[in-house]
Amino acid sequence: MKTLNVDVAVIGGGTAGLGAYRAAKAHTPHVVMIEGGPYGTTCARVGCMPSKLLIAAAESVHQIEKAPAFGVYPQGEIHINGREVMDRVKRERDRFVGFVLEGVDEIPAEDKIAGYAKFIDNNTLQVDDHTLIHAERIVIATGSRPAYPAVWNELGDRLIINDDVFEWDDLPQSVAVFGPGVIGLELGQALKRLGVEVVMFGLGGQVGPLTDPAIMAYADKAFNEEFYLDADVKVESMKRIGDSVEIQYLNKEGVLDTITVDYVLAATGRRPNVDKLAIENTDLELDQRGVPMADYYTLQTSVASIFIAGDASNQLPLLHEAADQGRIAGDNAGRFPDIRAGLRRSKISAVFSDPQIAMVGETYREISNRLGNCGCFETGEVSFENQGRSRVMLRNKGMLHVYGEHGTGRFLGAEMMGPNAEHLAHLLAWAHQNKMTIAQMLDMPFYHPVIEEGVRTALRDLNAKLHLGPEMIKHCLDCGPGC
User: Fold this and answer.
1) Is there a single domain that holds both residue 137 and residue 15?
2) Is 62 a catalytic residue?
3) Torsion angle of alpha carbons 381, 385, 386, 388, nearest 10°?
4) Is the model's pTM score more than 0.90?
5) Among 18, 33, 136, 247, which one is most buried in terms of CB atoms within 10 A?
């Protein structure tokens, strides 16, 4: 067996792993990256990029279907060629993956170790049966994978995960989506708009990542206008029959219903890939889910020489977070023992549904747990249903809640469903990271007519409730019509 002695070993070659490798390499030449699967990021291969390609196709269909409301009538029946849709998705997906692989190709071959790593002790890794690595410091960046009940494996190839969707050559007739989270909502709605019959099931009533009950209720209603969604279903049975799956469930009226679908899409969450690392051979302290605990700002675990980053850390499974965490963990592994706190940006997340869902800063649940008992925060709100620019574009669905602190008037966070929520969330995240007050945000310029005027309305409502500004005026003169 080959033996290597290195300063830093990075386990994983995805977004976090690549970031950690490059950051560590800035401090020492003796860095290796271990990868057992294909190089490239979850985002490029099976996540954010291919899903957005599918969503873009679905949006084009939706725009044609909406055209008559503007007095524009497309000629003839809309024809969706599933093979052409999926061909473009895969071609563009492969192009994005290619960009990532170009960066991987620039890494020296001797720094890339192929295989799956397991801990022998705090500073020793064995890669398959061919290499033993003694590392002064180690970064765990092994990513995550879809999680679903093991019994579902009885469905065979009728059970799919999001990875499988992007390998289809054509679109199916019908899909049952389990899990109305980010992945389930994005793919389920896109498939529905592309002509696939879609039903969506969840447990516990959760819709998307939302925690604000009012926004979540609005989202549940909005999605149900487009496809069947029961966010707290009771499934009686699910079994494969030939090349289909029969699902028996209690519908919303409590009556037993039976449907037959081509596929069951498991979008019930993801789990960190740490369970096959033989972590029991280390002194790492684990949380209740078996994931190594780490400092939020340094990504250092309970073992000083081991760091963790990206989806494996189970903190915020988002690409920009994985990239940030990878850089922080790799930098600290490289400069060890001179550990430094890294920049952790304000939280921002988005669901690319229609209307979009977005969250910024502290969630409603987090703020309620922290300040709710003392009544120390307020919620400002706006509906996009009568907001001027939203109505002009016939995209007038959704609502926005912004949260502010009594006394300080500081902006704490926001949850929303609405048009261009991805852009509104960025503006609010920048304000949150700069620790702005509601008054300071209201001093910023707002053009007319734009969707962002809805943000101003919500901020004015919040400022009034915090007793830091005037009461809301139904038709303010400086807003223009429909703000």
Assistant:
1) yes
2) no
3) 100
4) yes
5) 18
